[in-house]
Amino acid sequence: MMARHPMAANIALNDLDRRIVNVLQEGFPLVAAPFAAVAAKIDIPESQLIARLQRMTDTGVVTRFGPFLDAAAMGGAFCLCAVAAPADRFEEIAGIVDGFPQVAHNYEREHALNMWFVLATESPEEIDSTALRIEQATGLAVLRFPKLEEFFIGFRVAA
Q1: Counting Cβ atoms within 10 Å, is residue 150 exposed (0-12), middle (13-18) or buried (19+)?
Q2: Which residue range forms the structural domain that includes residue 141?
Q3: Which alpha helices (DSSP H) does the chain contain, by range?
Q4: What is residue 153's predicted lDDT score, i.e. its pLDDT?
Q5: Which of 33, 41, 54, 112 pairs with 149 at a CA distance of 20 to 30 A?
Q6: Residue 135 is part of a domain; what is its CATH number?
Q7: pLDDT in tens, 40-87
Q8: d(CA 110, CA 122)
């Protein structure tokens, strides 16, 4: 589940944290010791890199650390979905939704549709069956927003 708390206002990135974020956005090496390779590129010990990444994840500075896989290129499908989760059940519903292995990521939004998540499935047909199972498990309608056109924006955030 994604971090659901806003980043604390008193948490600031220092120059080293910014270098780490910027270097990692350019790619993660596919080698036997990837953290050591990144640490060497930044000229810090591997243990320091891992500790800083853990701190940034724990505090909400970094909300996701992992690959973006193109399910459609592998024969699968993606679909953006949303539900209107009652505030008093939000965490319960988030736990149910996050329990489905097809849920790629899940975010809280300030909107009537306050929970948004992406389904990544092995086949296009599995989108509907997974959404129906989520509806049955939560008692909430899962609105589906399938991709109509793909745009590659090369998203990077300068830290």
Answers
A1: exposed
A2: 72-146
A3: 15-25, 34-42, 46-58, 90-98, 125-138
A4: 62
A5: 112
A6: 3.30.70.3460
A7: 999 999 999 999 999 988 888 887 777 777 777 888 898 999 999 999
A8: 31
